[in-house]
Specification:
Its main location: cytoplasm. This is 3-methyl-2-oxobutanoate hydroxymethyltransferase. Catalyzes the reversible reaction in which hydroxymethyl group from 5,10-methylenetetrahydrofolate is transferred onto alpha-ketoisovalerate to form ketopantoate. With 276 residues, this protein is an alpha/beta fold. It has one domain: Alpha-Beta Barrel (TIM Barrel), CATH 3.20.20. The protein has 11 helices and 8 strands. It has an 8-stranded parallel β-barrel with strand order 1-2-3-4-5-6-7-8, surrounded by 7 helices. Helix 2 crosses helix 11 and helix 8 packs parallel to helix 9. It starts with 15 loop residues before the first helix and ends in an 11-residue tail after the last helix.
Length: 276
C-alpha cells in the first residue's frame, strides 16, 4: 500500500451506495482526476471522496489532441498505479473510446479495469440506446457505473469541438431526459460536463443519484477537477471551469486540501468558473 500512515482516525472507504447517501445528507462530494500513485496519495491525504482515472490522460499525460487514442491497456495501467495510492477514496476508471462498441466489449474492458486495475466503478459517456444497454449489463453483473453527459470528449468530432452543451432549450430538455434514462438504467452517479449552471441545478434536483460537475455550476452534488489543472500545471490556457489552488499556498497537499474545503463549503466553482 503506497500510503503514509498517521495517528488520525481512518475514515470508512467510500462506496457507490455511499455517494448516494452523501447526496441524501446534503454533503457535497469531492472528486479529483489523477493518473498516478503520487497524485493519488495527495488526493487520499486531503480527504477526496472519489478519484477518477480519466481517459483525459490522453491529452494530459500523452500529449494527444483528444482522448480518442487512449486504449483499454492504457486505462488499466494508470488505474493500477492510482489504486496503489488510495486507501479509502472510491476509485473510478473511464471506459475509453469504443470500448462500449458492444456489450461484450464493454464487459471485457470493465472486467479488466476492476480485476486488473482495481477500480470500484467504471465511467461511461453517453446515453444512446447502446450506452443504456451497457449500463444495464454492467450493473447486472455487479459493476457500478458512473454515467457522463453534456460535453462528452469522446464525441468531440460529432460536437464540432469542445463546446458547451445544453444552452438551447431543446438541447437542455434532451439532456435532462438522458440523465433520467441513465439513472433508470442503473447508473450510480452522473458526471455533468460543460453545461449551464441552471441546467446543472435542474438535473441535480431531478435525480436521486448524485451529480458530479465539471464546468456545470455549483449546484451539482459534487465537483471534479483534473489535478494538473488544480495545481496550475496544465500548459497553455486553462479551462474556464478550473482554478489554480496552488497559487499562494506552500505545497501541493495544501492546494488539494483547499479545493476539498471550497467544494464542501459550496464556494467552488464560482461564477467565474461557470457557464450561463
Amino acid at each position: 500500500m503506497y500510503m503514509e500512515k498517521s495517528g488520525a482516525p481512518r475514515r470508512k472507504p467510500v462506496t457507490a451506495p455511499g455517494l448516494r447517501a452523501m447526496k441524501e445528507k446534503g454533503q457535497r462530494i469531492v472528486a479529483l482526476t489523477a493518473y498516478d500513485a503520487s497524485f493519488a496519495v495527495l488526493a487520499e491525504r486531503a480527504g477526496v471522496d472519489f478519484v477518477l482515472v480519466g481517459d483525459s490522460l490522453g491529452m494530459v499525460i500523452q500529449g494527444q489532441s483528444t482522448t480518442l487514442p487512449v486504449t483499454v491497456d492504457d486505462m488499466v495501467y494508470h488505474t493500477r498505479m492510482v489504486a496503489r495510492g488510495l486507501e479509502t477514496a472510491l476509485l473510478v476508471a473511464d471506459l475509453p473510446f469504443m470500448a462500449d462498441r458492444s456489450v461484450e466489449h464493454a464487459l471485457e474492458a470493465a472486467w479488466r479495469l476492476v480485476a486488473e486495475g482495481g477500480a470500484a466503478m467504471v465511467k461511461l459517456e453517453g446515453a444512446a440506446a447502446h450506452h443504456l444497454a451497457v449500463i444495464e449489463a454492467l450493473v447486472s453483473r455487479g459493476i457500478p457505473v458512473c454515467a457522463h453527459l453534456g460535453l462528452t470528449p469522446q464525441s468531440v468530432h460529432a460536437m464540432g469541438g469542445f463546446k458547451i452543451q445544453g444552452r438551447q432549450q431543446e438541447a437542455a430538455d434532451r439532456l435532462l431526459q438522458e440523465a433520467l434514462q441513465v439513472e433508470a438504467a442503473g447508473a450510480a452517479a452522473l458526471v455533468l460536463e460543460g453545461i449551464p449552471t441552471a441546467l446543472g441545478k435542474i438535473v441535480s434536483q431531478r435525480l436521486a443519484i448524485p451529480t458530479i460537475g465539471i464546468g456545470a455550476g455549483v449546484e451539482c452534488d459534487g465537483q471534479v477537477l483534473v489535478i494538473y489543472d488544480l495545481l496550475g500545471l496544465t500548459p497553455g490556457r486553462r479551462p474556464k471551469f478550473s482554478k489554480d489552488f496552488l497559487e499562494g499556498r506552500g505545497s501541493a497537499l495544501a492546494a488539494v486540501q483547499a479545493y476539498v474545503e471550497d467544494v464542501r463549503a459550496g464556494v467552488f466553482p464560482g461564477l467565474e468558473h461557470s457557464f450561463d
